[in-house]
Amino acid sequence: TLRRSSGGRPRQVIVGDVDDTPGSSEGARLVSYGTDGRFTLGVAGGRRIQAAFAAPRHRVVVGEESEPFVRDGRNAFAKFVSAADDGIRPGDEVLVVDDDDALFAVGRAELSGAEAEAFASGAAVSVRNGVASEDDANAGE
C-alpha cells in the first residue's frame, strides 16, 4: 500500500493490513520517501533486499562483539566491520549483517565499502532501525 502526504506526494510503502488513519503503525514499512528523492529502508524492506541479492551486495558485515549494540539501533563503527560491498557509496541504504548473513539493522552508509573496511575509527553505518534478536522474539512465547 502506498501512503501519500496531504499534498498527494508518496511518503511510505507499507506491506500487510494497513489502517489509513494518519499515524497508524499497522503493517510493515518497506520504504519511506525523503524530500530529497531518496528512499529510506525499513526492516521489512531490508529483508526483501537480503532475499533478492546474494551476499555481499548492499551489506556491511560486522563482528559479533557489536551485535547487541547494532540490534539496539546504535551505529555500526568501522573498527568492527569485517567486510563490505565495494559498491557501497556514502549515503546508500545498507544492511548490517554478521558473517552468517543474519540481519542486525538497516541504515545509511557513512563511508564507502572500501573505507568501512580500511578505517579503524568512525561510524561506518548510521543505523536507522535495529532488528530484535531471535532470542528476544522467542522469549515472550
UniProtKB/TrEMBL annotation:
Q: Which Gene3D superfamilies match?
A: ArcTGT, C2 domain (3.10.450.90), PUA domain (2.30.130.10)
Q: Which CDD domains match?
A: PUA_archaeosine_TGT
Any Pfam family from its record, for instance, is: TGT_C2
Q: Report domain PUA positions.
A: 58-132
Cross-referenced InterPro entries: PUA, PUA-like_sf, PUA_sf, TGT_C2, TGT_C2_sf
- Domain of life, per UniProt, equals Archaea
Show the segment(s) annotated as Disordered.
Answer: 1-29
What is the designated name of this protein?
Answer: PUA domain-containing protein
Q: State the species of origin.
A: Halorubrum trueperi
